């Protein structure tokens, strides 16, 4: 009984961390919109990955710990965990690549909605590859959250274009990232998982930057502040918190909680960009919150049994 209480307490802290992440990533839509006015997607990707990786390495540098232990162990489970983390970084790079490129050809609302399709994809990945039972509570909560995201972000003129297709692909990439991270965390620590994930993403981001073409990085006031926010806060800090949280939460529950990003994205758009707040947006936010509360209730009930 005492062990179950401690487990639930840890899960609640993990949910609070993810709630903070949703607030930051919701604000990240505004920051990315501002940064794209000056910087190319390849520049934004590389800067945010390098910044995030540097932030994740600071504890090792501060404590003067060598980087060798990251690659020194050779047990089969440990190697498997590292491979999952590196693959996770590749999926993270692809997700941001398709999301950022797609944002140039579609509206932020469509981009946010199509990205949030990962809330439906993750439970099926867990069932097919992770050998987890496809729980009805997760499917219902995922569907309700997706419906809420649609109410928040879509208008009556929803049409599929190039940007929408790229955003649709990014949803599968982010779903794979969450699933692979949950597999990596079974074998390695959260700290090592995020370092390897961001290392992999940085390498692929650098290759993409070289392919697209080099140009001097410009420091232009507000867009550069947006770039700093995306790099150090939205990537470095938030992906570390996600890796900590997924040690206690399933990938499906994580995806459903992260669907709250659409709520905070709309709130920041209303506050900072002057968008109008409608009844439909409020109903969408209510649906997402009901999904999050519902999945938390059923997951806690399952862990008590």
Number of helices: 13
Euclidean distance between termini CA atoms: 10 Å
Which stretches are low in confidence, meaning pLDDT under 50 for 5 or more residues running? 68-72
Strand tally is 0
Main traits of this protein?
305 residues, globular
Helix and strand topology:
Elements: H1 2-35, H2 41-62, H3 69-72, H4 76-103, H5 108-115, H6 118-128, H7 136-153, H8 162-184, H9 190-212, H10 221-245, H11 251-258, H12 261-272, H13 279-304
Describe this entry's structure for a reader.
With 305 residues, this protein is mainly alpha-helical. 79% of the residues lie in helices and 0% in strands. It contains 13 helices and no strands. Helix 4 crosses helix 9 and helix 6 crosses helix 8. The longest helix is centred in the N-terminal third of the chain and has 34 residues. About 2% of the residues have low confidence.
Summarize the structure.
The protein starts with a helix and ends with a helix. It has 305 residues and is an all-alpha fold.
């Amino acid at each position: 009984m005492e062990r179950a209480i401690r487990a639930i307490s840890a899960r609640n802290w993990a949910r609070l961390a993810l709630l903070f992440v949703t607030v930051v990533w919701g604000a990240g839509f505004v920051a990315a919109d501002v940064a794209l006015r000056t910087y190319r997607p390849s520049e934004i990707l590389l800067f945010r990955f390098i910044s995030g990786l540097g932030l994740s390495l600071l504890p090792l540098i501060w404590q003067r710990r060598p980087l060798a232990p990251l690659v020194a162990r050779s047990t089969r489970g440990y190697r498997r965990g590292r491979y999952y983390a590196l693959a996770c970084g590749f999926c993270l790079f692809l997700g941001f690549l398709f999301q950022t490129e797609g944002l140039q050809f579609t509206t932020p609302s469509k981009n946010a909605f199509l990205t949030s399709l990962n809330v439906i994809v993750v439970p099926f990945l867990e069932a097919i590859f992770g050998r987890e039972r496809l729980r009805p509570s997760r499917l219902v909560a995922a569907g309700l959250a997706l419906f809420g995201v649609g109410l928040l972000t879509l208008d009556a003129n929803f049409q599929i274009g190039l940007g929408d297709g790229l955003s649709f692909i990014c949803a599968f990439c982010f779903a794979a990232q969450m699933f692979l991270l949950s597999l990596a965390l079974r074998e390695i620590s959260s700290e090592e998982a995020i370092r390897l994930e961001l290392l992999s993403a940085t390498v692929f981001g650098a290759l993409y930057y070289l392919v697209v073409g080099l140009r001097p990085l410009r420091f232009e006031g507000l867009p550069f502040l947006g770039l700093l926010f995306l790099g150090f806060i939205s990537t470095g800090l938030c992906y570390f918190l996600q890796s900590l949280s997924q040690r206690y939460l399933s990938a499906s529950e994580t995806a459903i909680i992260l669907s709250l990003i659409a709520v905070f994205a709309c709130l920041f758009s209303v506050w900072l960009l002057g968008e109008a707040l409608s009844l439909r947006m409020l109903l969408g936010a209510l649906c997402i919150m009901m999904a999050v509360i519902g999945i938390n209730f059923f997951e806690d009930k399952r862990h008590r049994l």
